[in-house]
Amino acid sequence: MDREPTKSALTGQSALVTGGSRGLGLLLAERLAARGNRVTIAARDPEELERAASWVARHTGTTPTTRVCDVREEEAVGALVAQTAEEQGGLDAVFSVAGIIQVAPVAALDPESFRAAMDTMFHGNVHTSLAALPHLRRSPYGGRLILVGSVGGLLAVPHLVPYSCAKAAVAALAEGLRTELAGSAVSVTAAHPGLIRTGSHRQAQFGGDRAREFAWFAALSGAPLVSMDARRAAERIVRAAERRRVRLVLTPAARAAGLAHGVAPALTTRASGLAARLLPAPGPGDDLAAGHRLAEPRLGRWQDTLRRLGSRLNDRAAHRFNQ
After folding, report:
1. Residues 6+ apart with CB under 8 A from 271
2. Among 101, 115, 123, which residue's Cα sits nearest to residue 207?
3. Residue limits of the Ketoreductase domain (predicted)?
4. pLDDT tens digits, residue range 183-235?
5. Is 163 a catalytic residue?
6. 80: CATH
7. What is the dihedral of CA 288, 70, 164, 258, to 10 degrees?
8. Using an 8 Å Cβ cutoff, are 20 and 56 in contact?
9. Shortest CA distance to 207 belongs to which of 107, 99, 108?
10. In-domain check, residue 6
11. Active-site residue among 163, 206, 216, 217?
12. 165 lies in which domain range?
């Protein structure tokens, strides 16, 4: 157990984390439990949830409540929120994290890929927000709603276009809710992480030349100079929620990219186009496949070296954070 007895503006409150069974959501649940919150984690897979609850208990001494829920289903989310509020004596903070990652050139995708991204990340956030707000308004502490977007929602990332589209919609949702709730006791925080070492390459879906798409994504998302330690990222997001920050962009690279796109969008779009030329061309792959089902690709010597160096930390994170 490595619980940190942290005095917090959230201590003793009821917190719900969607997408809380692995990766960033799991670490947010851990950070909240370490602060003495009554934590409920929700996800689609009951076995993952059971492992996640045991993991949080080992690290904090507190076992979170688990609930199976698919955030794409409006009624299921409504039932989750209502049951959590009833069992925990109210609902004070909601962290909406659930998401999917599809890595492929647009030429290898179909409209269903875009619908899947929007259903999970945008509609999932809509369902969670609308169901939670009535309960957050009744919180005696002043409710907190935290929507997890991405730097990919601040500027489009090649070979991650469905993801970027959905995360851009999440950014607009968070901003709109924040403005409409101004003057109320409820705060809305938008968290936009850059690359975080959560081991997400294991659960991401890959299309086109799937093996090579997996190789570059695993390497880049684990590279020390451009990615961030996942537990540190979770701590930063919880602190932002405590302070009721409007917006948090994590990693220097993500902040620089977001700022550059805001100042010179045409220039950054051209730069992204140049970067896209370095990525794999559409390959023979058919359906999207999860990273953990893909065989290691055979690349050139320097490419293999780069992949191994970049993905080593991410592979460790996958093992540690229930991926």
Report:
1. none
2. 101
3. 13-194
4. 999 999 999 999 888 877 778 999 998 888 888 888 888 777 778 889 999 99
5. yes
6. 3.40.50.720
7. -140
8. no
9. 108
10. no
11. 163
12. 14-320
Q: Are 212 and 297 in contact (CB under 8 A)?
A: yes
Any domain includes 89: yes
Q: How many residues does the chain have?
A: 323
In 3D space, the residue among 290, 287, 293, 278 whose CA is nearest the CA of residue 108 turns out to be 287
CA distance 32 to 318: 21
Residue 105 DSSP symbol: -
Count CB-CB contacts under 10 A for residue 112. 11
Q: How far is CA 314 from CA 138, 230, 245, 262, 307, in A?
A: 40, 10, 29, 30, 11
Instruction: Please give the Cα distance from 301 to 132 (Å, whole number).
Output: 51
Query: Is residue 102 in a domain?
Result: yes
Q: How many distinct structural domains can be found in the chain?
A: 1
Provide the residue type at 181 as one letter.
L
Q: Cα separations (Å) of 300 from 158, 275, 303?
A: 23, 19, 5
- Please indicate, yes or no, if residue 162 is contained in any of the structural domains: yes
